[in-house]
Amino acid sequence: MVHRLWTIDREFMSNTGKLYLVPTPIGNLEDMTFRAIRILKEADLILAEDTRTSAPMLKHFDIQNKVFAHHQHNEHQSSNEIIKFLLMGQNIALISDAGTPAISDPGFYLVREALKFNIAVECLPGATAFVPALVNSGFPTDKFCFEGFLPLKKGRQTRYKFLATEERTIILYESPHRLLKTLDEMATFFGADRQLSVSRELTKMFEETVRGTVTEVKTYFETHPLKGEFVMCVAGAAPVEGDKKKRKYADEEEED
Fold first, then answer.
1. Mean pLDDT by 10-residue block, N- to C-terminus, for the chain (256 residues)?
2. Largest CA distance in the chain
3. C-beta of residue 169 within 8 angstroms of C-beta of residue 143
4. Residue 21 contacts by C-beta under 8 Å, 6 or more apart in sequence?
5. For 159, phi and psi rounded to 5 degrees?
6. What torsion, rounded to 10 degrees, do the Cα atoms 158, 161, 164, 167 define?
7. If DSSP states are collapsed to H, E and C, what string results for 60-102?
8. Residue 69: phi, psi to the nearest 5?
9. Which position among 68, 73, 144, 192 has the lowest Cβ density within 10 Å, counted as fewest Cβ atoms?
10. Contact of 21 with 124, CB cutoff 8 Å
């Protein structure tokens, strides 16, 4: 049974607009969906993480709607105004610089605020960087742990220590100027022999995936270009002996 903290007034809902979260290509414009183009053309206004970054993509698909900035620096303030527009019946589409909004990008706060006011929210399926990187890695995909960007300073080591025993595939985002340092940190906390798959420039002309131990991957990138955004898939930790026995016992119970 689903318990709700509020009841939805259907008549009120019909008078409000809808918030659309619209994924955009992470590199290859051919990955844009027909539905995404239609929603962006039909929306009363578009919210973009960086209007300058989104402008070429919108122009390419002949999308001429008004575009306003909605990013991490103004998200709380602008969300209040956006909610007002939605309550007035405006349909609004949110896009990020690339990929799916709210996945390591602005969007979560606005979605939460819209739901507080019973405003309909719809997220279209589409591009996101970690899915192809995970599938390409060759690591288990049935269970995985998405971490996005690790904290830059405070809490970073604590997070590494926590993840060191994580048995699911771990997915991280990293910028090019921090990649080598992050690989050094992984060698320290995960071990130099932990298996790793690093993808960069996904869907673009110079797309590349490098697989191997932490040491092998670091050696490779020390002599190759550090360009584009990186998605790092880390093999899960091997379960300790006690956990293996507990899992075997649990599996046998389920079969019974």
1. 39 76 96 98 96 96 95 87 96 96 93 96 96 97 96 95 98 97 98 98 95 98 94 95 55 54
2. 62
3. yes
4. 93, 94, 100, 101, 102, 107, 111, 121, 122, 123, 124
5. -70, -40
6. -70
7. HCCCCCCEEECCCCCHHHHHHHHHHHHHCCCCEEEECCCECCC
8. -80, 135
9. 73
10. yes
pLDDT at position 11: 45
Integer distance in angstroms from the first to the last C-alpha of the chain? 27
Q: How far apart are CA 85 and CA 79, in angstroms?
A: 10
Q: What's the pLDDT at 168?
A: 98
Cβ atoms of residues 107 and 85 within 8 Å: no
Structure tokens at 211: 């697989």
Contacts of residue 122, Cβ cutoff 8 Å, sequence gap at least 6: 18, 19, 20, 21
Beta bridge mates, 121: 19
- Residue 199 phi/psi, 5° resolution? -115, 140
Tokens of 128: 């996101």
Amino acid at position 138, single letter: G
CB 140 within 8 A of CB 205: no
Query: Cα 220 to chain center, whole Å?
Result: 26
Q: Which of 64, 75, 135, 137 lies closest to 101 in space, CA to CA?
A: 75
Q: Which two tokens stand for residue 171?
A: 């997915």
**pTM of the full structure:** 0.84
CA distances from 4 to 1, 18, 28, 116, 142 (A): 10, 20, 41, 11, 30
Position 182, amino acid: T
What's the chain's length in residues?
A: 256
